[in-house]
Amino acid sequence: MTRKLFGTDGVRGRANTFPMTPEIAMKVGMAAGRFFTRGDHRHRVVIGKDTRLSGYMVEPALVAGFTAVGMDVFQFGPLPTPAVAMLTRSLRADLGVMISASHNPYQDNGIKLFGPDGNKLSDECEQEIEALMESGLEEGLAEPSRLGRAKRVDDSQARYIEFAKRTFPKHLRLDGMRVVIDCANGAAYKVAPAVLWELGAEIFAMGVAPDGFNINSECGSTAPAAMAAKVREVRADFGIALDGDADRVVMADETGRIIDGDQILALIAKSWSAKGELKGGGVVGTVMSNAGLERFLGNMKLKLARARVGDRYVIEEMRKGDFNVGGEQSGHIVLSDFSTTGDGLIAALQVLAVLAEEKKPASEAAHLFDPLPQVLENVRYRNGSPLQDARVQSQIKTSEARLNGCGRVIVRKSGTEPVIRIMAEGEDEKMVRAVVREIAGVIRDAAG
To answer: Is 102 part of the annotated catalytic residue set?
Structure first.
């Protein structure tokens, strides 16, 4: 059985259209609740969300589903995805849920599920939950006396703030450091500025006025230019841009130059390796990670293990090789010593710790290699993926031959949007751009 509802990061889609409807949300709650009901104890599920308007629709539907199968529900309100993962473990919940479409615009929403260990569910678990949704849910309904209860947890933000602060080295402070923090009008709009301020930084907060519609809108990690401009305007030492649910991050040095996920991995790998804290002999990246990162790590006798795109696959590869650092170029950084999933704020704190310890400007400390020219382009489609078209496959082979072993071509279907993502990388930037342009043109023709 293949998954129909779940993609690379849970269930996701346009709000109030299939599959992000109240009916589907309620069925996810009922099926996931049944799947994680094991034993006679009172089962509990924790739910967090970001700031999208549609969260007010999705959350009650999930609560109805969970309580209908006898689960007690603890509602956190707006809270980062990694905080929900952490609190799932901390509160000994049987299941954790995050309502978010991450970096997508407000029109979209999604449902991410975490097991009792705080890890995202495997493909196999998601398949079993889908099977329960399709096979009828009536037999799993609780008796009236066993219905679940729902209540708000008022101190969830304070719990995460203290947790995040504990990941920062105890002997260091951020006193005297000027930091811009862009919260994308999303889930971290309260907790991220609080953590940085309590560690001593002078903060300049952006994206902290959510209205249900402005999440990720010209702000946050998908539009870091606003953060970079603010860094230059206020002469800050450092800039941080989170996405809507704060599981990814993009940073900027004091000149406003962007620091992406590959540079973050390089910096943390160098710092942790020097302290003897890096496990696995290197880090985990993805097929999209720049070859410049691989060369940099190689010069330090460290390896880059490549996983499929998606932080869940990065985490799987980390477990296989006993790595404790992994991530994606887009800014999902997973530090398993602290968290079971990507955490943009904790990744930023590790970079800030290096700046505080080495007393170096970010422009010197956080740009450790020159990336190879890499060109990305997205092509939207409507009905059916055009990747199977013979013309597309032929063009990809032709393009790979043009690079002649001096570069890479990656063409893949997004797991979260109806988009084909094209990436080419190589020494010759003109050729790389031409290759991407040619492939994109053929895909557009095939998509009609």
So the answer is: yes
